[in-house]
Specification:
The structure holds two protein chains of two kinds. Chain A is of the alpha+beta class. Chain A contains twelve helices and 19 strands. Classes of the chains: A alpha+beta, B alpha+beta. At the A-B interface, strand 9, helix 6, strand 11, helix 7 and helix 8 of A face strand 9, helix 8, helix 9, helix 11 and helix 17 of B.
Chain lengths: 447, 483
């Protein structure tokens, strides 16, 4: 292999790397990248699909040695999340697909744990678990395409988190392939385990910038015997809709019911008024338990109008991405009690932008916002996004842009502030990936 | 070698009377709850604010003095054991609850706040703080953060890490950083996730944002007596298999029951295997499920089932369980508290193996488990006065851990690795796994001043290692070695 230079390797070095990679994964699992493989407009050189964890680690080692950039890829549902890949003088970019690592390795149903490879789709995993009446208590976006590895790397979650927490509360073990070719395990197969540092949590939400997840182990929950949903409309009085909704959500959190979904759907198709403000609740457990809690809810929500729950209501957030027209979709987090205030801020901002909007939020303080309309008026849009972000950040929340026109991405960090912890995050990155091989520039603070 | 007067003077300037150097007083700090490891610190400092902690750590950093943070000193793995030529930083005086935010269910606490004080503070408003280690009336939130403490109810509610949203931390270089946020999912690496459970090796938490939980509508606690632990174990499998997630499932064997009875008279039936099952949640749900639990226990051979009829009776049910460790003193002059985890289904196999090992060594082993999540606390009983027995007891306790690892489990479920089990880490993890964990250590504490020598069997220098292996200059010079 060619000698290293400070800016990467020579073209000859890259060619050696391609042939080494071909020898490692087999010619049939390596191809030239096409237009459809582009990530934020950057078309990589090669796509490889290793067949096992050792091959993933081996491929990373070769890429590191040759100064290539590696973009890990699962089901391709969220490849545009994060900042644009950092421009550099490197020899090339490589997409490492986990699609061949798609096995459910073990379902220890008696222990309520399961081991699964990173490239397995969420749907396939759930189907396997369901054979023994269990599930991973998570409802991520696009479960039929999205893979376990991608869901972990982006820390995706859905309405179930109000009861079961997010991935950090469900993952108990991980295998990571590091840029130097190390294959490292952390955690284990038991739910309760405090031996060593908790690397499963560190890897969760790290956007593939520390290592490539090859396998994960989860704690499971039983599929509930009964699941009942009910919905309310609170859009009768436009001005107070957000306050009413906020009060109702807080009241539900403050009572001792145990919902497995508390979701707010709101939006405005015109630009002035909130014309949609609906609340969805879900209860799971025994039939008698669900019935009693529904009755209790109906007593509490006597001021709100009960409506039929829309079809597929617990996947409502995924519809915010629908359509090909330019839109902005953001993930926001906030303190639960700030939701009403934030709704009003969104309404005011959209009014100024003349943009219709929709949001789906979970009562724990996580939601997704879609802003439509004239998203090409970049200056006004940037200003609006910065404004919403700063309102959230000053109260301990965050505002991450997940989908937007490339022009916005080139002018705005999609992640927002990480506060005074950024130097520490950079140190962690420098330890795991000192030559910045994995997804360089795409994560917080340019990591 | 005693600490230089110059440095002690600087420490005194920060904490005033909160500096302890008298040998007689230092003895209080020579060990934690694991008393067979002892070391006298050079000095103990008792800061009262983040700024004081920072000032102390800055001096430690400048003078390369290793430090060990200490909460209430109840840890069971030697995590707060002082280190050679080091100081102890006790957080006991930073014990204020700074904020209670009920609408958002958050509490901000200093590290020295006692675990049960958090619950006491929010209980009148219908909330509680879920992690409940048996030492909760004494142990501190800061210590809980270091150890990622669990407790009987973590089966349903999760561990300390589930309930810590954000931390203010003094890093080993003396800088103050804020990890996480009051809202969930802060962008960036999950630093609270890596800090909680790091056993004091990554820095000192000075403020902690906790999540509190709404009290369940009702709680029902059932006690069931079986002839054997196998029967009790089958009932646990039955309960989990029926799709229930109780708040707690605890098991005790006959020896543990005898000890608890002698100590606190909980009125437990004298049986081979005792189960305590607690369900909580909406009334309609719990009342329905407690009947199912009762039915499953009967099917599995339970010959006595009691359901607590009052809060007082429930407290009595728990009293024996919570006192179980200390109660061993009633039936044995000395004992070792062990903490291992196994996949729950391996319970019958592991229990019979422990029985065989116990018989072979001629030492009694009492068993107390968090049965729902496979967390075992075997208590190895011995008499220190009999020559060689302590060594055999320690060996037996270590062999029980090996058994846990062989069954796919862990060497610790909640007590931590600390000083006691660091040599066992290599049996649970391969070298690359441990090396990778060291990367985290190097990012937080490159000079290894924060609780050095704990958790890991050995530590390497935090040198840059990019690409192929290159020897460190110190290694070349023959003054240091990578492992």
């Amino acid at each position: 292999m060619e000698a290293h230079s400070s800016s990467g390797t020579s073209i000859a070095g890259a060619e050696t790397a391609w042939s080494d990679l071909r020898a490692l994964v087999g010619a049939e699992n390596m191809r030239a990248a096409a237009e459809e493989d582009a990530v934020d407009g950057i078309v990589p050189q090669i796509v490889i699909a290793p067949g096992n964890a050792e091959e993933v680690a081996g491929a990373l080692k070769i890429a590191t040695g040759a100064g290539l950039q590696v973009i890990p890829r699962g089901g391709r549902t969220k490849t545009d999340w994060g900042n644009r890949l950092r421009n550099s003088e490197r020899t090339g970019e490589l997409i490492l697909s986990t699609r061949r690592l798609n096995r459910v390795v073990e379902h220890a149903w008696g222990d309520m744990t399961a081991t699964v490879e990173a490239g397995c789709t969420f749907h396939q995993f759930q189907q396997t678990l369901a054979e023994h009446g269990q599930r991973l208590a998570l409802d991520p976006l696009w479960p039929k395409q999205a893979t376990i590895g991608g869901i972990l790397a982006t820390n995706d979650s859905g309405p179930l988190r109000v009861r079961f927490g997010s991935l950090r509360d469900l993952i108990i073990g991980i295998t990571l392939a590091l840029p130097d070719g190390t294959l490292a395990k952390s955690g284990g197969k038991v739910v309760k385990n405090v031996a060593g540092y908790d690397l499963p949590k560190l890897a969760t939400g790290s956007l593939g910038t520390l290592g490539i997840i090859t396998q994960a182990i989860f704690r499971l929950h039983p599929i509930p015997r009964e699941s009942r949903a009910l919905s309310f409309s609170i859009s009768d009085s436009v001005l107070s809709a957000s306050e009413t909704m906020n009060a109702l959500v807080l009241a539900i959190q403050d009572c001792n019911m145990v919902p497995t979904g508390v979701q707010i759907r709101a939006g405005s198709s015109s630009t002035r008024e909130i014309d949609l403000c609906e609340l969805d609740l879900r209860f799971e457990g025994t039939a008698t338990g669900c019935k009693a809690q529904i009755e209790q809810t109906l007593r509490m929500a006597s001021g709100a109008r009960r409506i039929e729950s829309p079809a597929d209501v617990w996947n409502a957030h995924s519809t915010l991405w629908s359509g090909d027209e330019p839109t902005v979709v953001c993930k926001f987090t906030l303190l639960p009690a700030d939701l009403g205030t934030f709704l009003n801020s969104v309404r005011q901002t959209s009014e100024a932008l003349h943009s219709p909007w929709r949001l789906v939020a979970q009562a724990v303080g996580v939601g997704y916002l879609r802003i439509e309309g004239d998203v090409n008026n970049t200056e006004a849009l940037l200003h609006a996004l910065e404004d919403l972000r700063s309102r959230l950040e000053t109260r301990g929340g965050s505002f991450v842009i997940l989908r937007c026109p490339l022009e916005i991405k080139s002018k705005m960090d999609v992640w927002g502030s990480t506060g005074d912890a950024l130097p520490l995050m950079k140190s962690i990155k420098a330890q795991f990936d000192p030559t910045r091989v994995l997804n360089p520039g795409r994560f917080v603070g340019g990591i | 070698m005693p600490m230089e007067a110059r440095i002690l003077g600087q420490f005194r300037a920060i904490v005033g009377k909160g500096l302890i150097t008298e040998a007689s007083q230092l003895h209080t700090y020579e060990c934690d709850g694991l008393t067979n490891f002892r070391l006298l610190p050079q000095a103990v400092l008792l800061p009262t604010s983040t700024e004081e902690v920072q000032a102390i750590v800055r001096i430690c950093q400048r003078e390369k003095i290793p430090f060990v943070a200490r909460g209430s000193g109840t840890g069971l793995s030697g995590g707060a054991l002082p280190v050679e030529n080091g100081v102890v930083i006790s957080l006991a005086r930073m014990n204020r609850i700074l904020e209670v935010d009920l609408p958002n269910a958050r509490v901000v606490a200093e590290p020295g706040v006692v675990n049960s004080d958090v619950t006491q503070r929010v209980f009148p408003h219908g909330y509680f703080y879920a992690p409940d280690p048996s030492s909760q009336s004494v142990c501190s939130i800061g210590g809980n953060v270091a150890e990622n403490s669990g407790g009987a109810h973590c089966l349903k509610y999760g561990f300390t890490t589930t309930h810590v949203l954000a931390l203010e931390v003094v890093l080993p270089d003396g800088s103050i950083v804020h990890l996480g946020s009051r809202a969930v999912d802060r962008p960036g690496y999950d630093l609270p996730g890596i800090f909680v459970g790091s056993e004091g090796t990554l820095g000192i938490a000075t403020k902690i944002v906790l999540r509190i939980v709404k009290k369940p509508a009702i709680i029902q606690t059932l006690l069931a007596a079986f002839n054997t632990t196998e029967e009790a174990g089958a009932a646990v499998s039955g309960i989990i298999g029926a799709g229930m997630l109780p708040a707690a499932i605890e098991m005790m064997d006959n020896l543990a029951i005898q000890a608890a009875e002698a100590a606190v008279h909980a009125g437990y039936p004298n049986c081979g295997g005792l189960l305590l099952v607690e369900l909580d949640g909406p009334a309609a749900e719990v009342e329905h499920l407690i009947d199912e639990v009762s039915g499953i226990c009967t099917q599995c051979g339970a010959w006595e089932i009691r359901i607590a009829q009052s809060e007082a009776e429930r407290a009595v049910f728990w009293k024996g369980r919570k006192a179980a460790f200390a109660a061993m003193g009633r039936i044995s002059p000395n004992y070792i508290v062990q903490d291992g985890v196994i996949p729950r289904t391996a319970l019958p196999k592991v229990l019979s193996a422990i029985e065989r090992m116990s018989a072979a060594e001629g030492l009694r082993v009492a068993n107390v488990f968090h049965a729902g999540d496979g967390n075992l606390h075997p208590l190895v009983l011995y008499d220190r006065r009999i020559p060689g027995q302590e060594e055999r007891a320690m060996e037996l306790s270590i062999n029980i851990l090996r058994l846990c690892v062989e069954c796919g489990g862990s060497i610790t479920g909640e007590h931590g690795v600390g000083e006691e089990k660091k040599m066992m880490m290599g049996e649970m993890f391969a070298e690359p796994d441990l090396e990778t964990m060291q990367l985290v250590r190097c990012a937080f504490d490159p000079e290894r001043l924060s609780n050095p020598g704990k958790v890991f069997p050995r530590t390497r220098l935090c040198a840059e290692r990019t690409g192929p292996y290159q020897p460190h200059p110190l290694e070349v010079a023959g003054v240091a070695q990578f492992f």
